[in-house]
């Protein structure tokens, strides 16, 4: 952080995140042992509530709260410090660490921990989607269904994600949706619609090439048709999309209604089926610790 005086750092650790090959509790403890900063480690349990975590944070009074997990853990940590001056940090311990990838935070524990102390702060916007805070990406349709399948699997990590993808990718069922953007009604058939603060998924696939975390807009990415060529662009070349297959809208508010209930996820957390989606921008929602620019 820009202020390197003695800090109080509160870690929210999700033991169920990722493939659990890294002992993050040990990594954090060893890193901070020779330093003057004060840390508290809070391990999530199945019965843990947001109010419980908020009370722990209030009593500890940290300057920095760190999510140790995937995008769902980041979302949880962000919800716990909404409307405070506390800065948010990330240690990428999830199966797919989309926001950490977006921000250039390393998967290497020592490097990621260094960012917490030596990084810089960056203000980013968020979205509020059906009352749920979204820091990274939300979507309806195919990928949300993938999230549902992934949560049910015993195999975690990127291999588990790939296995879930193989089961749902080519089902390619279409949904009939009417969107209202900037007071304009748009009727469209799509396989998947993404409400995007950021640009890429944790896999590295670029879903939103024009996205910025610190502007005053979010993007609505409509994937009308799944195709090998468009997937290749997202994952490898990042070339412009074919507008007949993928279309991107920019806005600060969205209303969307589907002809039937469709799968819905926010920041990697499957939230069931919905017929309506309402999203609004939350400008400058949080301060994040990100890697400092490399010296030229």
Keywords, separated by commas or semicolons:
296 residues; alpha+beta; Rossmann fold; Tumour Suppressor Smad4; 2 domains; ten-stranded antiparallel sheet; 8 helices; 14 strands; 27% helix; 37% strand; globular
Outline of the structure:
By secondary structure, this protein is an alpha+beta fold. 27% of the residues lie in helices and 37% in strands.
- Uncertain runs are 155-166
Q: Please state roughly what percent of the residues sit in beta strands, choosing from under 5%, 5-15%, 15-25%, 25-35%, 35-45% or over 45%.
A: 35-45%
* Total DSSP E strands: 14
Mind describing the biggest β-sheet?
Answer: 10 strands, antiparallel
> What is the name of the CATH topology of the largest domain?
Tumour Suppressor Smad4
CATH architecture of the largest domain: Sandwich
The number of helical elements comes to 8
What global shape is seen? globular
Architecture overview:
With 296 residues, this protein is of the alpha+beta class. It is built from eight helices and 14 strands. The protein has two domains: 8-118, Rossmann fold; 136-281, Tumour Suppressor Smad4. 27% of the residues lie in helices and 37% in strands. Strands 5, 6, 7, 8, 9, 10, 11, 12, 13 and 14 form a ten-stranded antiparallel beta sheet that branches. The radius of gyration is 19 Å and the shape is globular. Residues 155-166 have low confidence and may be disordered.
List the helices and strands and how they pair.
Blueprint: E1 8-13, H1 24-32, E2 38-43, H2 50-60, E3 64-69, H3 71-80, E4 87-92, H4 98-103, H5 109-118, E5 120-129, E6 132-134, E7 137-141, H6 142-152, H7 157-168, E8 175-181, E9 184-190, E10 192-196, E11 218-223, H8 228-237, E12 246-251, E13 253-266, E14 269-290
Parallel strand pairs: 1-2, 1-3, 3-4
Antiparallel strand pairs: 5-6, 5-14, 7-10, 7-13, 8-9, 8-13, 10-11, 11-12, 13-14
């Amino acid at each position: 952080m820009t202020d390197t005086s003695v800090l109080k750092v509160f870690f929210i650790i999700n033991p169920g995140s990722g493939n659990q090959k890294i002992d993050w509790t040990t990594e954090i403890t060893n890193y901070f042992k020779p330093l003057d900063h004060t840390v508290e480690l809070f391990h999530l349990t199945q019965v843990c509530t947001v109010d419980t975590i908020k009370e722990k944070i209030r009593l500890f009074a940290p300057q920095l709260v760190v999510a140790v997990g995937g995008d769902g853990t980041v979302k949880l940590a962000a919800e716990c410090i909404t409307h405070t001056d506390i800065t948010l940090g990330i240690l990428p311990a999830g199966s797919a660490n989309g926001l950490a990838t977006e921000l250039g935070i390393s998967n290497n524990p020592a490097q990621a921990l260094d960012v917490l102390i030596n990084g810089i702060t960056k203000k980013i916007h968020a979205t509020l989607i059906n009352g749920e805070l979204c820091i990274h990406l939300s979507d309806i349709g195919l990928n949300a269904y993938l999230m549902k399948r992934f949560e049910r699997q015993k195999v975690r990590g990127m291999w588990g994600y790939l296995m879930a993808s193989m089961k749902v990718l080519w089902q390619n069922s279409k949904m009939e949706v009417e969107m209202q953007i900037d007071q304009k009604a748009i009727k469209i058939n799509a396989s998947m619609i993404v409400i995007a603060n950021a640009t890429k998924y944790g896999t590295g696939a670029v879903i939103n090439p024009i996205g910025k975390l610190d502007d005053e807009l979010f993007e609505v990415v409509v994937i009308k048709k799944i195709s090998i060529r468009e997937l290749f662009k997202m994952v490898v070349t990042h070339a412009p999309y074919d507008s007949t297959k993928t279309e991107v809208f920019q806005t600060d508010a969205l209303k969307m209604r589907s002809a039937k209930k469709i799968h819905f996820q926010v920041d990697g957390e499957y939230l069931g089926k919905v017929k309506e989606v309402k999203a609004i921008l939350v400008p400058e929602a949080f301060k994040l610790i990100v890697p400092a620019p490399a010296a030229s």
